[in-house]
Design brief:
- The chain is α/β, with parallel strands linked by helices.
- The chain has two domains: 213 residues, Glycogen Phosphorylase B (Rossmann fold, 3-Layer(aba) Sandwich); 186 residues, Glycogen Phosphorylase B (Rossmann fold, 3-Layer(aba) Sandwich).
- It has 16 helices and 15 strands.
- The protein has a seven-stranded parallel β-sheet with strand order 3-2-1-4-5-8-9, with helices on both faces.
- The longest helix has 17 residues.
- The two termini are 19 Å apart.
Length: 414
């Protein structure tokens, strides 16, 4: 019998702090069926979050607990056949890791190709930046409002990002979740034959079933035919900051309600620095009796599952170039279509007229977003087709297809 190959998964933390760690938690048990797996991290935080895979206790090392040198020595002694690297904050640690074994990098965001990680000019309305990371970016940073206003922070982040960008072409393979991000890493110097797009995993909740699509459409028809029609239920999921477009979504609601002639209920699930501003903007709609806005905060898995089962339309109003936007396929598995601006990787999962509608993002406006929402909802038969299309589209992001491609990529890198 052939011995299993050894894969060391590397990330800044091995606690579930966000989408990257959720992804790692999903693939580890699948990889263990085919590989021996070790877990390597820089820190063990946030302390109040669950570990990505607590059952794997033997081969795991943390820089914050034993230091860089001891961690690197332990990884070398374990002799991995390949490293599967995600986010690494320490440039020194990243460079030393590449000396240990062949490595595959999953680029989840713009932290390797942009000082701020936003890839957006904000000086005169959000504009996607297509520059390659290099020293001239320092000249654009403040005039184009690429990030904050602290020069020391700009220099520190530029140095770290520059190391990441320099070593990116040295990985055996660079994986991205979207063709948009593949183009981004190739622009940064990764050879096209070393860059591959593997559609990411859309986590399917407890109630995500194809049979729910017909039930959803039937419930919707019944709900709108009564003397007091039920509201259309819209949903936003994500971190609340300015580039996520919540202000435009809230500003679009009056137009949507007027066009549809039906009440609206918007739930915003998440939190972040823009939440207080969005809550104030939503209060201005309190006199519009046909519109209800609710801020739910971050929701546990079961609560989100229940919410998606009761949602009619996901709205993704991001005005920056989302690397992918996995929330769309995740909602789609419940039969929930989507409306969004056509930015970044979103048009790769939101197919116009198939599982939702796209709004023009040049520039992004509340009126444009309202039009996309109305097109999704105004015709019952069309809405039913979009709901069915959402389920069909979500199947492209099922776990098996992702693991088949990932396993082949890791083996080829050895």
């Amino acid at each position: 019998m052939d011995l299993k190959r050894r894969v060391a998964i590397v990330n800044w933390s091995l606690r579930i702090a966000g989408g990257v760690e959720r992804y790692i938690a999903t693939v580890v048990p699948e990889l263990l069926t085919e590989f021996e797996v070790a877990l390597v991290s820089e820190v063990d935080e946030p302390a109040d979050r669950d570990e990505v895979y607590p059952s794997l206790t033997e081969h795991r090392w943390c820089v914050g607990q034993i230091g860089i040198e001891a961690t690197l020595a332990a990884v070398r002694d374990w002799r991995p056949d390949v490293l599967y690297v995600h986010r690494v904050d320490s440039a020194l640690f990243l460079e030393e890791l590449l000396k240990v074994a062949p490595a595959v990098r999953f680029v989840h965001d713009y932290s390797d190709t942009c000082i701020s990680g936003l890839k957006t000019w904000q000086s005169s309305g959000p504009t996607v930046c297509t520059r390659r990371l290099a020293w001239p970016c320092l000249l654009h940073y403040f005039p184009h409002r690429c990030g904050g206003l602290n020069p020391a922070t700009m220099i520190r982040r530029f140095r770290t990002a520059s190391v990441r960008a320099r070593v990116l072409p040295l990985f055996r393979t660079v994986v991205t979740a979207s063709a948009h991000m593949r183009d981004e890493v190739v622009r940064q110097g990764v050879s096209p034959d070393r860059a591959t797009c593997i559609p990411t995993v859309a986590h399917q909740g407890l109630g995500a079933t194809a049979s729910g699509t017909a039930d959803r459409s039937a419930r919707r028809v019944a709900a709108t035919s009564g003397s007091a029609p039920a509201p259309w239920r819209l949903l936003f999921i994500g971190r609340m900051d300015d580039l996520k477009g919540g202000s435009l979504l809230i500003a679009s609601l009056e137009r949507v309600a007027a066009r549809l002639g039906l009440p609206l209920s918007l739930t915003l699930a998440g939190d972040g620095p823009a939440r207080a501003d969005w809550e104030r903007e939503a209060q201005s709609l309190s006199s519009v009796h046909s519109i209800e806005v609710r801020f739910a905060g971050w929701l546990a898995h079961e609560a989100m599952d229940a919410l998606l089962q009761q949602t009619d339309l996901l709205v993704v109003p991001s005005i920056w170039a989302e690397p992918f936007g996995v929330v769309g396929p995740e909602a789609g598995a419940y039969g929930v279509p989507a409306a969004a601006f056509a930015v970044g990787g979103i048009p790769e999962w939101l197919v116009e007229g198939v599982n939702g509608h796209l709004a023009n993002a040049l520039p992004p406006t509340a009126a444009g977003l309202a039009e996309a929402i109305v097109r999704c909802l105004e015709e019952p038969a069309h809405y039913a087709r979009l709901s069915a299309g959402a389920v069909a589209n979500a199947r492209r992001y099922e776990l098996k297809a992702h693991m088949d491609a990932l396993s082949a990529t890791l083996r080829a890198a050895v």
